[in-house]
Amino acid sequence: MAGCLWPCVTADADGGGAGHKKGGLFRSKPRTPPEVVQHVRELLTYILDHKDAGGGGSSKRDAKLEHKMIELSKSIKDMKGILYGDGEEDPCDEACKQLTKEFFKKNSDIFRQLIIFLPQLDLETQKDVTQVIANLQRQKVDSRLVASEYLEANSDLLDILMSGYENIDIAVHYSTLLRDCIRHQVAARYVLESQHLKSFFDYIQFPDFNVQSDVFKTFKELVTRHKSTVAEFFSKNYDWFFAEFNSKLILSASNYFIKRQAIQLLRDILLERSNAAVMVRYVSSKEHLIILMNLLREDSKAIQVEAFHVFKLFVLNKEKPPEISAILHTNRNKLLRFLKDFSSVEKDDKKFDADKGRVVSEILTLALKSR
């Protein structure tokens, strides 16, 4: 590619390391993409081997370790430059391919090392690492998403990322990394089928808003991205999932943001075509209907509107169980009074007005049927 910033090699680059060891300050050329990865691996191995060497080390040894840390940050930034370009030149496809191939090379632990060592890096380098790993999830080598294959063979890395939620200082970074990994169906399936998913309902309660919102973003990605895997998950885990969802994200959520986002997510789940069986089951439950009717009484207009979009599914269900029809009929006058002046948060929301008209019509039909 014209203007490529990085020397692309076609031969095996394992011998390239010798050149950069010898060159020192007088290097004649930059490292190739594979050499950059190899150098990061060497630095990480050295630092991980020496950082806990004890407090009795000499200042000279400490200075060397500090130098390696600085060099590591620079080399990670070099990887980022290869993958994203420098703002003036676009990334070189061949360079990206070679970097990706070396990064995910069999028996290479660089992905694992970066994740484990992430808490020890400065904030700027942590951001660089998350951007590098995010980009690598999308890179293909010979038409293969090698990151997906790597995660399938190293699924314990997802356990490590989940454990990061226990550390408030790195929770957002680990959550971002996890969200990038679950772009791959094999990784998402692993998390969904593990006990980790249950932990999200507690992690979403974090008092720190940034952590809370990022965790929720990852949780939403897990239960919406891969349609067939998610549908299979719901068919096997319906009871406990929606019991936790209703209890912790809707009923007991004191946070306005979480409650509103949770109701929106519930609507998205139920309206997804691949979750048709889940929707039928959900809107056939009188307990769920009561929850939604109570949400219509919330002080927040925005939450009322979000709740309406789920409530209408109960009303417009053509196969309503008798107990659902009975509850709607018993409360018809209250519902009709409420809906009379009920409007969307947005002005001139024709879709909302049409939906409200259908709901009112159906409730009136129920009243006529009962005579």
UniProtKB/TrEMBL annotation:
Pfam families: Mo25. InterPro entries: ARM-like, ARM-type_fold, Mo25. It comes from the Eukaryota. Belongs to the Mo25 family. This is MO25-like protein. It comes from Urochloa decumbens.
